[in-house]
Amino acid sequence: MTSQTAPRVLVGHGTENDFVVLPDPDGRVWPEDRLDAALVRRLCDRRAGMGGDGVLRVVGSAHVPDAAGVLGDELSACEWFMDHRNADGSTAEMCGNGIRLFLHVLVSEGLLDRATCEAGVLVGTRGGPRRVGATADGDYWVDMGPAREFGAGEAEVAGRTFAGRAVSMGNPHLACLTDVDVDGLDLTGTPRFDSGLFPDGVNVELVNVLEPGAHVRLRVVERGVGETRSCGTGACAAGYAALVAEGRAEGTVVVDVPGGRLSVQVTPTTTVLTGPAVLVSAGELCPEWLAG
Ligand SMILES: N[C@@H](CCC[C@H](N)C(=O)O)C(=O)O
């Protein structure tokens, strides 16, 4: 079979935020009109598809029509582009767990050598270029740039109202520090929020502080997905909010999520997220399923 009839597909996760990964180096396997929102929803379906919180297309930036617009002068510095889709088929500007898995896939698929990966590379995203690299112990880090706070807001979720900070990590977040035990919340519903503050929707983080400015527990309801077991950009927003609550502009915060543990290092100009990336399986999509 050729790649035209049976495209390669991988499944992996970062702290159990899981993704269907589609290698497409020269952009010929999954052009925009083929990988449309309906197919993304089918791929992410946990019963009738591969199953995942989203899709990551691994594509050369030169083959993404709108890459020049988001990467500007740095287009040529970003050989690769993380084309991220949420499970509902929508696109997002950034994905902190996904971009670590993206780098892991570049190496495992032989598209990037390990030494370059360890040194760190710029990857294009719809939120702009992000530097990503590997740690000596096999984890991955990504520099998201500074957390940008743009107001205060509220979300109604689990029958309660939570107040939080509106924070952009490239994508929008409402990071709510709360004394309500987040482990006891039913997060199956859709959060209500101020669409004036968040015209493009929002990811809602509910955060218990375990150690002020140093350690938090997080649950998250993601835009375009629902509750997930982890959100890397959400962890960054939560880490930033936990530090600001202590009057600090920098520090390192351990973020426990249902799917594991992440580390977030904040300075006024950078937010470095570190955590694992795990590949679970690799194979081919069945042409019969694709045609269905
Ligand atoms: N899980 C991701 C974020 C994915 C995008 C998000 N749902 C959005 O729409 O902004 C992460 O690890 O950051």
Automatic annotation (TrEMBL):
Catalytic-site annotation from UniProt: 95, 95 (proton donor), 231 (proton acceptor)
Residues with site note (Could be important to modulate the pK values of the two catalytic cysteine residues): 173, 222
Binding site for substrate: 17, 86, 96-97, 171, 203, 222-223, 232-233
Pathway membership: Amino-acid biosynthesis; L-lysine biosynthesis via DAP pathway; DL-2,6-diaminopimelate from LL-2,6-diaminopimelate: step 1/1
Keyword line: Amino-acid biosynthesis, Cytoplasm, Isomerase, Lysine biosynthesis
InterPro entries per record: DAP_epimerase_AS (IPR018510), DAP_epimerase_DapF (IPR001653)
GO terms for MF: diaminopimelate epimerase activity
Highest taxon of the lineage: Bacteria
Compartments it resides in: Cytoplasm
Any single GO CC term annotated in Swiss-Prot or TrEMBL for this entry: cytosol
Entry annotated with the keyword Disulfide bond: no
SUPFAM superfamilies: Diaminopimelate epimerase-like
EC number in record: 5.1.1.7
Catalytic activity: (2S,6S)-2,6-diaminopimelate = meso-2,6-diaminopimelate
Record-level GO BP terms: lysine biosynthetic process via diaminopimelate
Tagged with keyword Phosphoprotein: no
Subunit relationships: Homodimer.
Function: Catalyzes the stereoinversion of LL-2,6-diaminopimelate (L,L-DAP) to meso-diaminopimelate (meso-DAP), a precursor of L-lysine and an essential component of the bacterial peptidoglycan.
Entry's family note: Belongs to the diaminopimelate epimerase family.
Protein name: Diaminopimelate epimerase
Biological source species: Blastococcus haudaquaticus
Record lineage: Bacteria, Bacillati, Actinomycetota, Actinomycetes, Geodermatophilales
Gene from which this protein is expressed: dapF
